[in-house]
Amino acid sequence: MKLYHTLRMLPLLALMQLGAASCDYIHEDIEPCDHYLHFSYTYNMLSADAFVPQMTNQETAKQVELFIYDEAGQFLRSQTISGSELESNRIQLDLEPGTYQLLAWAGLNDTDYTWTRPEAGEPMADWQMAVKQEDGTVNRELLGLFQGSLELTIPEGGETDTEFLLVKNTNKIRFVLIDANSGTGLNADDFTISATTQNSDLDYQNEPVTTETVSWQPYYQGVETVEDTNGNTAYQAVCAELNTLRLLDGTETSLAITHQGEAEPFLHVSLTDLLLLTKMESHDMTAQEYLDRQDEYVIMLYLDTTGGTAHCLEIIVNDWTIRLDDVNLGR
């Protein structure tokens, strides 16, 4: 009986030995092992991986720039991931056994950003990126920007597939301004909308390099209509969209909305404080984590523009109703 059991195990043992020897860096006559990365963007409000859909749905810049440094953080080379390799999200690495520092930035493009093109031997700490601006203003739509860093060890033997976690660094804010008085006509230029932050650049650790104030202005602003069940215009709304780079809790930000012909804004608040009001108590996360996970906001404002001046009656941010009399955010 023991002999029979041993004979049955021999094929299995042979297969196990063959698998163990199928790739190895030690023996020159055996093909080296393959090592792969796959990117993951789960740092969002749904905790669901949205990396490939968000990247492939962008109009351009559907690529990842992977910067490879040695264990000491000295630059070795870079690798661009795009096309079918990006869609399959299985990136093969041609690296010898050892420990490496990897830096990934997805969505970099020459229209929206400037960034470091490191030379051999340069330290990772020198890496920086910045949003292109004109006279301290950004009024175009930015393509989505993702970042991540990873310490990776390539073993002497055995295939590996490593998850590379990314965060998103761009936000979109849509404004819907509605006059509560039925039948009031609106024009796209009736309102001036501007947000300011102290963040227009980031380093290799995803932290701001400078604290200079940048103004974010709409890349879209127009009048849209809502019809009743008979196809007649029920009301008009001025809709606008702007974007920002990563929002940081504890830094100075502002949101100002001014009605045409008025010198002072009828809404002038801290942008981050306003957005953080939408964080549910059940969200088990810090304010900064919420700002990093939530990348899109819709701000609806119901106004009274009787007499040519604007008064804000109610604000709804991502389905949360905010009355300024209750929260002391505006003037």
Description of the molecule:
The chain is mostly beta strands. It folds into two domains: about 20-170, Immunoglobulin-like, CATH 2.60.40; about 170-325, Immunoglobulin-like. About 15% of the residues lie in helices and about 40% in strands. The protein has helices at about 1-20, 50-55, 85-90, 270-275, 285-295, 325; strands at about 35-40, 65-70, 75-80, 90-95, 100-105, 115, 130, 135-140, 145-155, 160-165, 165-170, 170-180, 190-195, 200-205, 215, 220-225, 235-245, 255-260, 265-270, 295-305, 310-315, 320. The longest helix is centred in the N-terminal third of the chain and has 19 residues, at about 1-20. The chain is elongated. The termini are far apart.
Q: What's the number of helices?
A: 6
Rg over CA atoms, rounded to whole Å, is 26 Å
Secondary structure: number of strands: 22
The proportion of residues forming helix, as a percent range, comes to 10-25%
The major β-sheet equals: 6 strands, mixed
Widest β-sheet, arrangement of strands: 16-17-12-20-21-22
Provide the residue-averaged pLDDT.
Answer: 89
Report, as a whole number of angstroms, the end-to-end distance: 90 Å
Q: Bin the strand percentage.
A: 35-45%
Low-confidence stretches: 1-21, 326-331
Which structural class is indicated by helix and strand composition? mainly beta
Give the SSE order as H and E letters: HEHEEHEEEEEEEEEEEEEEEEHHEEEH
